Amino acid sequence: HLAGAFHWTPRLAGNFEFRTSGGLEALARALRTTPVESGHLFMDGKGTYGSHGLSVSGRMRARELRLKTPGINSGAMNITSDYKWAENRLRIPNFTLSALKARAQGSATVTLAKARPVVSLHSRFKELNLSTLMKIVPQAKHTVGIFHPHAVISGTLDAVWRQPSRVQSRFDVQFNPPSEPAPSGLSLSGHAQGSIDVGRETLLTLQ
Description:
This protein is mainly beta. It is 11% helix and 63% strand. A hairpin with a 2-residue loop joins strand 3 (36-50) and strand 4 (53-67).
């Protein structure tokens, strides 16, 4: 669905509203965000076009989103958020993400620079299972998986991804033992701050 009004003089300008749904692969190609592997998008909004270019804002829902990221296997995700597009920048101010039997909330910005897109993320998450998290980053599982650690994690994560290079992130998390202790392994509790760089290799730094 698309409706609007435009005029051609003295220059092309107008406003419109729309509602659409479809596969995320086509949108990813248009925005040059190559890591999107699959998913389905529902989006509606209003926009204007004028001397400052295109500006669009509205609400979107992504279902069964899967990403191709270096060293990360995130699985399927569902995302709901408002959005605003202007001046080659997509702002997502209040997303809710469901994945890995956990929920996260936060904000994100995708900047389409002339060279490569840059993705910036700030999120708060609750009750993320550590065993499930290690399945996302296989290299981390190979590093600490021999201890069979068990914990439920809550905290914050800030990350920057300059495609196609590594993902750089900082975290501040609280570890609590799971409500149902595992029959074997190491139960964790406590607080941690640090950074994770994921590329060809994974570098974990604790402070």
